[in-house]
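thread from #wetlab-drylab

HS: before we spend reagent money on co-crystallization trials with heme C, can we at least see a predicted complex? here's what I'd submit
DV: go for it
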Amino acid sequence: VLVTLGLFLASPVNAAGDAKAGRQKALMCQGCHGLDGLSKQPDAPHIAGQPVLYFVKAINEYKAKSRRHEQMSIVAESLSEADIADLAAYYGAITVSVELPAR
Ligand code: HEC
């Protein structure tokens, strides 16, 4: 699978979140999800280009502990609503293109 990325920091996808601020906040996510949103750990998902609604929902589920994961719950606890919106805007603004397997 070939994945290419482009970052469009000037145009946040969600008016509620600031992608530029999100890029700074993503420094605490990069060890696992990368600053490019591509997983850096075998057990971590890619989050590049993730729909903003889904992203916010997922983080809030870790916060509420209705979705449980040791590391993500700790991370989510430290995030404010604005942090979550900014991070969602940043990761959501990463464009991903994919190539299907030849057969
Ligand atoms: C120590 C590693 C680690 C760090 C740091 C980390 N994550 Fe995660 N993240 C994970 C793992 C592992 C999962 C999958 C957890 C599960 O099974 O539910 C995950 C899941 C997620 C998901 C859900 C993805 C999906 O497809 O459902 C989101 C969104 C997410 N992380 C965002 C973040 C953000 C934003 C940060 C930084 C503020 C962050 N993560 C920091 C390891 C990490």
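DV: The two ends are 12 Å apart (CA to CA).
HS: ok that's useful, forwarding to the group
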